[in-house]
Design goal:
Blueprint (H helix, E strand, L loop, with lengths): L22 H15 L7 H8 L30
GO molecular function: catalytic activity
Protein name: Condensation domain-containing protein
Organism: Escherichia coli
């Protein structure tokens, strides 16, 4: 894969949020799910649609999209505890 600019791939992730789950627990669980999904990052959205047997114009395969950029360093903002 060669790209000259930013590239975005859509990977479906179904999320269930339990009422008693804290934000740190949710973040930890989602981080683990995202790590597992990375092995499928070359399986693009168009291929998912084709493999699902959907025709053009049918109901969308997925709904809201959240764009996440994972960084391998900690962001420190003065006065903000994270």
């Amino acid at each position: 894969l060669t790209a000259t600019g930013p590239v975005l791939n859509v990977l479906p992730l179904g999320i269930h949020i339990a009422a008693q789950e804290t934000l740190p627990q949710l973040a930890t669980r989602l981080a683990a799910q995202l790590k597992k999904m990375r092995r499928h990052q070359r399986y693009d959205a168009e291929q998912i649609v084709r493999d699902s047997g959907r025709a053009a114009g049918e109901e969308p395969l997925f709904g809201p999209v959240l764009n996440i950029k994972v960084f391998d360093y900690q962001l420190d903002i003065p006065g903000v505890q994270a």
